[in-house]
Fold this protein.
Amino acid sequence: MSETTETVSDRDPQRIRNGKWEQGAVIAPEDLATLCSQGVLPPGPVGACAVLLSQSCDVLAESYDDEPEVEIIVASPLVKSDWRYVKLRNPRVLHLPFDVNGARSYCELRPHLRFMVPRHLLEVLVRDRARELAPRSLRMLRTWVVDRYLRAVFPDEFNTRLKRVEQQLHNLFKKAIDVTGAWVLLDTDSELEAGEPYRIVSAIITMRTDAYTDRTRRLIVEKIGSRLGQILEGCDGVECELPEVRPEARFSLDDLGVYQRIDKNADHEED
């Protein structure tokens, strides 16, 4: 990014569109370093790039009055990913796969390294084509950001009981590529005493709608649902009915407001 004497009257959001900026596009390390040196951003990790988080329609808005800023998140390069931070396992750290010059690499992202920057800066920045987020990685990033606000908050006692089957749940979901979430509705949000069971009055496994229409793939997820029911029913202090499998198209916003998510690997990826 070069120095510029641009005035407000010189700005043209069409240049952002011409530059192919969109959600998930990457700001190159050298440009991010320049933004830091100019005081637009605080000093950041050496060699880091940044990913555009704002929706593409906001990035490409025709008026700076309507959308004066865009949101970015800093991504620090890694020599090797850590299994504890991949595939949405940790709400505070994400190790996300990037395509760097056609080869897979990982970067570390943290929620406190999200920033709002003036959108007009994208007019003079050049999108980094050496670093790309695959669609699956972008979905994972969006899910990770949103889940910080939507992740389930179960009673502590329920979480304690669930820890007894945590590894079984992890093994069940880690390769379930068509599963997009496992959701439960408890009969109470209270802290129960020993001997009082938590009853899961309803459990739902969601899968991509296009996958649901494929009978073979749906049967695989139904088997996962049966196994989930067995794991939860076998957990001491928890009672559960057989989970229902639904396409995402039949999991409503009302459902989202009532059910809580129990899986930790809903945006799956092959190792």
The chain is about 30% helix and 25% strand.
